Amino acid sequence: MKTVLSIKGLTKDYGRLRAVNQLNLEVQQGQVFGMLGPNGSGKTTTLGMLMGVTNPTAGEFTWFGEPPTHTLRKKIGAVLEHPIFYPYLSGQKNLELNAMVKECPADNIPKVLDLVELSGRKDDKYKTYSLGMKQRLAIASALLNEPTVLILDEPTNGLDPMGIAEIRELTKKIAASGKTIILASHLLDEVQKVCTHFAVLKKGNLIHSGPVDDVGRGAETVEVQADVA
Ligand code: ATP
């Protein structure tokens, strides 16, 4: 099993607030890795550090065994909390612009639109899309440069039950295509349905990590559920 991500002692302080405290984690190739924790537990801060947009206060991490560099980050696609799309442009045009920004060819656009089931709506303006469709377009955009790893930050937040089910199915489909996925969520149920492995964060501290199958085994379940709530 190949290690995709290795995190050692990763820490982030915002002034006197310690948002992430001495985090140690490993993610292996092919895992759908859930970062589970309530609001404010440090999930977004951790993902920001892994994407190079937030500077760690201490600690280190490697992607594919090497220190994070621009080139390595090209292997990682991310859908963070607030993706930027132009409301009056079509889904297709928005992806073309994103491909330019990412400096990757537009050839993959039909493939990613097909994957997220938006081919039939590609010429409609972004502002006419439902929240679920917007989220699917954001995932399509993150996949444009064929990353090895996909990072999703609370991908089902704010969606209706159908939108939630679609995103969960899509996540599983992308995982089945061979990508490693890191997914932040505050929902134990979501992590159980979608992930193979998970870590539980609480107030910046890692309180549990392991296979998702662990949940459901006696005392540990109670502990995880109590800590996530
Ligand atoms: P959410 O789901 O609400 O985004 P989260 O688990 O992703 O929660 P973070 O957003 O990483 O958690 O926040 C962790 C802590 O760090 C919180 O107490 C938050 O208020 C604080 N924090 C996050 N970003 C900043 C910032 N830029 N400046 C100061 N404090 C911050």
TrEMBL record:
Belongs to the ABC transporter superfamily. Signal peptide: none annotated. Keywords: ATP-binding, Nucleotide-binding, Transport. Residues 5-228 form the ABC transporter domain. The chain holds residues 1 to 229 of 296 of the full protein. This is ABC-2 type transport system ATP-binding protein. The keyword Nucleotide-binding applies. One of its GO terms (molecular function) is ATP binding. It comes from the Bacteria. It comes from Chryseolinea serpens.
